[in-house]
Amino acid sequence: MNTAPDPADVVVVGGGIGGLSTAYALATAGHSVRVLERAPEFAEVGAGLQMAPNATRILREWGLLDEVLEAGVTPRRLLFRDALDGGELTHLDLDDEFVRRYGGPYVVIHRSDLLAILVRACERAGVALVPNCQVRDVVTGPDGATVHSNLGDYQGALVVGADGLRSTLRAKLSDDEPICSGYVAYRGAFPIADLDMDAGGLQDVVCYVGPGCHLVRYPLRRGEMLNTVAVFKSPAYERGEEDWGGPEELETAFAGACEDVRKALAALWRDRRWPMYDRLPIPTWTADRFALTGDAAHPMLQYLAQGACQAMEDAHCLATQLGDAGEPDWAAATKRYEAERTERTARVQSTARVWGDIWHVDGIGRLLRNELFRQRDPRDYTYVDWLYGQ
Amino acid sequence: MNTAPDPADVVVVGGGIGGLSTAYALATAGHSVRVLERAPEFAEVGAGLQMAPNATRILREWGLLDEVLEAGVTPRRLLFRDALDGGELTHLDLDDEFVRRYGGPYVVIHRSDLLAILVRACERAGVALVPNCQVRDVVTGPDGATVHSNLGDYQGALVVGADGLRSTLRAKLSDDEPICSGYVAYRGAFPIADLDMDAGGLQDVVCYVGPGCHLVRYPLRRGEMLNTVAVFKSPAYERGEEDWGGPEELETAFAGACEDVRKALAALWRDRRWPMYDRLPIPTWTADRFALTGDAAHPMLQYLAQGACQAMEDAHCLATQLGDAGEPDWAAATKRYEAERTERTARVQSTARVWGDIWHVDGIGRLLRNELFRQRDPRDYTYVDWLYGQ
């Protein structure tokens, strides 16, 4: 197939949350944008995700917050409990004071609902969405870049690599590989009516933290669905086995947990799982007319629930640096984007690792963690100001 | 030798700090007391020890506090620092507010000075001090007890076993053995003038806590001496070797510590060392006319600096329960002593272990410990009220 579609200002490789956010932000600023997606549809697998105010402020600016709020849930609190004894450790109120402080609400939403909102928004903004497109390479020079794909070549003044954790385009800038944490996530999103479960207390995002494991659950879709994520360190991975993190390890990993947590395992899919990877920060995301964004630029462990949020910050920043349509200095603007974003995302990546270690600590460390959490004033925002703040 | 000395009301086996405190407390209440000590002299090996208000209140009641204050030092603060980076973590002011709150000062004193004060006090109170006395057994019955020794038999209405961590008399009540922690202490007490060292900041008890190691130092003898204790987990012990904790392990154990700590190792004796042991709490300290006290009853790890203090609490309690001279109900009084003391000392023993774990934690636990310590309000007495309070 040697079609030669019209050149676009921007070609985005990858139609996930990050890629579509970038496409939408640039299209509404007046740029012509094309998104190339490998899969046959623009859709997300997975369950819920969390949008902190640093993302919802952007969604409001983009005019998408109302749709997100309608499809999602604004939980009452982030509540931490000890996974072993179930005891409450600390919480963050997500109330009016929180919303005022950070200029946006905290929302949880099904990934597929968020993606559908972004797809519709892109369509409204005139973004060209190209499915079934396998990108083979990007060739970039001082005046533009070309994407080679199974559907032909696509020209752009700028190409954005938004192809996720296992980004092939990142190889243009770094030879690093994803780093396996040895942890695996099981997820599940079910109508609450279908679960034999007390729905009490389900207005919170509850995080049970335990030795080598944790479980998070929260409501989705106006509280009609329950979202559950269970994460544990795989003994088989520790032993160096190829096949690790299977469902036979799940029950054992939570055998010492409190009854609420053990019961909650019933609300997980057993036929898929997500091994947890990240990468180390890299200082360079851009080359001529090419820039990385989202997980392709800064994949992170999920402990701060910032994967989608940081991808939206990327999109917002890149659009701001490029400015409104016309003839931007593409190379200079992407360099400014890189300069603004790399330090912050590196901090999120490294803090996510530490935060995971804090959740999963055992023994005397657990005792110290619990004491520190219990002593925390719920109105102390020290730990989140840097992340959620303006 | 088959001498037959006069019977005493109380025969105390062991002339250390605990035995002499018991002897003094009972003698001043009017009982006739004899102390049997294995060594040729009533003396202590070792360096400094700490006397918290729960002990100094008793010393004041006994009329000995002024002598202790004159021989010792009242430090300004208990100061905790991280052994690796040297950073300050938290402190407890030992100022007027502290003294008012707990009804007594915090004092550090050389062990030999404290023992000398107790020896003189016992002599003034008419206690018979018997050195070179190897106790072979105690035979107790409903009407009294007999100590069999190399110097003959000693009769008493009550025999007190104050023979320390490796108590032989404890075997009458429990078949447990000392439990090795795998940690070893090096100590040193030197005139500050002899040390090539900046004496600044030496008005504090400073505790540097680090992964698998810690170092404590404080002034002695009106600030003319420096007392240092360095404690570390022995790799040779971990490997199961017979000979462990030797001086060749000392430098290695502190190789990662900050310069202040590494320099402080110069102020340690290298020719002796103290492997650290404790035992688990036992519920029974008494049998007919026999009672355990001090380390023989409840040996503890030194992390709360309460060994001598708890022995003094034992002495004070036993004297209170026996009441003034006359014909006490010896068995009932010792049972009341046991009932009052076992729960508290068990808590001190188990808390000392946890406290040591907190000091020696590594990795993410150290990060949490440091954060918890740094956040502590210096005027928060939660952690010490139960221990130092009335």
From TrEMBL, chains A, B:
The FAD-binding domain, residue ranges: 8-348
Ranges that cross the membrane: none
PANTHER family per UniProt: GERANYLGERANYL DIPHOSPHATE REDUCTASE, MONOOXYGENASE
Protein name: 3-hydroxybenzoate 6-hydroxylase
Cofactor list: FAD
InterPro entries attached to this UniProt entry: FAD-bd, FAD-dep_Monooxygenase_BioMet, FAD/NAD-bd_sf
Keywords for the protein's UniProt record, in alphabetical order: FAD, Flavoprotein, Monooxygenase, Oxidoreductase
Keyword Flavoprotein: yes
Species in which this protein is naturally found: Actinomadura miaoliensis
